[in-house]
Design a protein that fits this description.
It is built from six helices and six strands. By secondary structure, it is an alpha/beta fold. A six-stranded mixed beta sheet has the order 3-2-4-1-5-6.
């Protein structure tokens, strides 16, 4: 079974609001999104589709397939209670969260160990229920943690920093190997 882990398309940033509430940018129906849709159509024509319940993820899934998409709150990104003025500040705090996954990086943040358990348990349940490949539309930190859990390796922070919107990583559950890496759309 293959897991097609899709990172959502470009969000419409809304200063002062939590990123979990941001919608997909109205101009996000880009060449990259079309290329990703074609790639998934070719590689996973019978896959079962699931999405995080965050608006930008659901909208991304709806742009990529005309088939059914089941929305699961357990596929959400790590809960983050605040918004950052700069990408650099956000990146520094998330990297700190990866270095201390058993604790919140900031007050109100979900510890990454908790995110890892939530995401992993959700995916194990889906794998047990589905016979086809899976397309999971969600978020960069959550997918980085999931790949680490499945492969038994430390989270690939270099890959996390290269993530684009949208992006794709394909993971073979049988061999626990990655056949398509982030940043290669």
């Amino acid at each position: 079974m293959l897991l097609h882990l899709v990172r959502h398309g470009r969000p419409q940033i809304q200063p002062g609001r939590a990123a979990s509430t941001w919608p997909l940018d109205p101009s996000a129906n880009t060449e990259e999104m079309h290329r990703l849709g074609s790639l998934l159509e070719d590689r996973a024509p019978t896959a079962a589709w699931f999405s995080s319940d965050e608006p930008k993820a659901v909208a991304t899934a709806r742009l990529l397939t005309t088939g059914p998409v089941r929305v699961l709150p357990t596929l959400r990104e790590a809960h983050r209670s605040d918004w950052f003025e700069t990408h650099e500040e956000f990146r520094a705090v998330v990297l700190d969260a990866f270095s201390r996954p058993d604790r919140p990086a900031r007050p109100g943040w979900e510890p990454l160990d908790q995110t890892r358990r939530r995401i992993s348990e959700a995916v194990v349940q889906l794998v047990g229920q589905e016979s086809d490949d899976l397309v999971l539309v969600g978020h960069g930190t959550a997918w980085t943690l999931l790949i680490s859990e499945i492969t038994g390796r430390e989270p690939d922070l270099n890959a996390w920093t290269r993530l684009r919107t949208p992006d794709l990583c394909i993971l073979d559950l049988g061999t626990q190997t990655i056949s398509h890496r982030w940043g290669r759309l």
